Amino acid sequence: MSSPSDQTAQRRLAAVLAADVVGYSDLMSKDEEGTLARLRDLRRQVIEPSIRSHHGRLVKTVGDGFLVEFSSPVEAVRCAVDLQKSVASTSSKEAMRPLQLRIGINIGDIMIEEDGDIFGDGVNIASRLQKMALPGGICLSAKVYEEVRDKLPFEFEDRGEHRFKNIGRPIKVYCLLEGLDSSEASGERRFVPPVLNQPSIAVLPFVNISKDPEQDFFADGIVEDIIAALSRFRSFFVIARNSTYAYKGRSINVQQIGRELGVRYVLEGSVRRSADRLRITAQLVDAMTGVHLWAEHYDGVVADVFDLQDQITASVVGSIQPSIRAAEIERARRKRPENLDAYDLVMRALPYVWSLEYEGNREAARLLEKALLLDPGYPLALSLAAWCRGQRIVYNWSTNIREDKRETLRQAQTAAALCHDDPFILTVLGAALTITKEYQRATFMLDRALSLDTNSAWGWNRSGWLRNYQDDPEVAIQHFERSLRLSPFDPMAFNCEMGIGCAHFIAKRYDQATQWQEKALMAKPTAAWIHRTLAPSYFLAGELDKAQESVGELLKGYPGITVTDILQAMAFSKEAMSRFAEGLRQAGLPE
Q1: pLDDT at res. 476
Q2: In 419-557, which ranges are continuous DSSP H helix?
Q3: Predicted local distance difference test score (pLDDT) of residue 85
Q4: Residue limits of the Guanylate cyclase domain (predicted)?
């Protein structure tokens, strides 16, 4: 697009709307004449009348797209919403593939040529926003958002700042959420990509970059296993294999794939074979922004191909879950408080849930309570609320242990009754039953959760703690180590190190018990509760001075705590508890 000369161009501030038809090239390749006729009718019957009614000026049409100028950003947004509703209504009556628009809107200083064409950053940004929008969606710059936020009854999602090609500064982007998902004229609902409502992911066919065509089958097998494993996460929307394999062999921008499939995240990868060696790479991409969230490679030999495939699947799935969780938490954090729904509140609560700190626990409980007021039957919110109460018991924060135990179990059981095949929710119920010392039922729930999702790092963590409480330290260590392998950067990793330390205590290997607990404390220095088991480990390892120091740190975090208080919170066997208690007494903690 060439710039106009200063002699012929005028300048003015305007709201610019840029739009295009989704998948136009594909539609043309399948039915050129029919697509052109449909697009011509759409312009004449829907687009041009809507622009006129909102006092806009149609600047130009180019192929499948068009550019509109408005003097008012409010009218530009109203026009965009009306266009999306009208296009959805018109397309729903057609037997063929429906037409969908993507729309971007910006306010900026523009240059107008004598023939009426417009140029400048104000136009370029609108065009970039249009490319970022979902099918049937509308993206706004922050300038537009600030002008319309209090004047229009729509919900907006803060997508954060983005850098666009040839634009020198980052642009903050908002997505219009309300008013785009129903066909009011026909009374029928049209397809809305689930990307706006829950984490959603597409696993693309892995590319075979070796010279051996046989590796295509290996690559396809990995992808099928990953899709099957991800599908077990009830909190994810996973695109089916048949849809993603349509992209095999095609070079398409990840953001375009995200728009076409309606997903927030895309996993892509490659397979390379050299002689007897194999290398698999995988990377997780935010399809909204194109930002890489996580990447890893895996090496092995051809002889171990099936074991390698299983290892890759477990590692990829174990890494994807916390990566997506972190991205979802960040997305919810950017939303304005008045636009938060129950899901957003749960996402905001998650880092506080996993902090395992007193103030974090209180904030998590507050956010989850708000989520349950909005949606009392939300299983994940119920489950996390139960675990927050469980933490109060376990970490000596409870002022009423009996009430907290009762309520922990009630909420965990309610969540499991609503969602009886969700591995995370079953894991929480298993943890709640562990706290109430119903070990047989806890074992059943945790084993069931892990059979549904063998790649759940937290499931293996809780199973490790249960084995500790059952005086089975060797199996406990195996389960903690498996959790760490699945998700080494998980915020709960230090808790696995604590679990291994306690397992060594149970096995009377006190030097190793202190080493692992010290490692956990270095990773989480604010977790004063670690000293409840570290102090007796020091004492029984023959390090009285360190034990007394540790008790001093414990009392700083828990003024007035006693040996009796700690014994009430713990769920270890009587024999292990007696050793913990003796070590604490000898280190100077009051009875």
Answers
A1: 94
A2: 423-435, 439-452, 457-469, 473-486, 493-506, 510-523, 531-540, 544-557
A3: 80
A4: 15-130
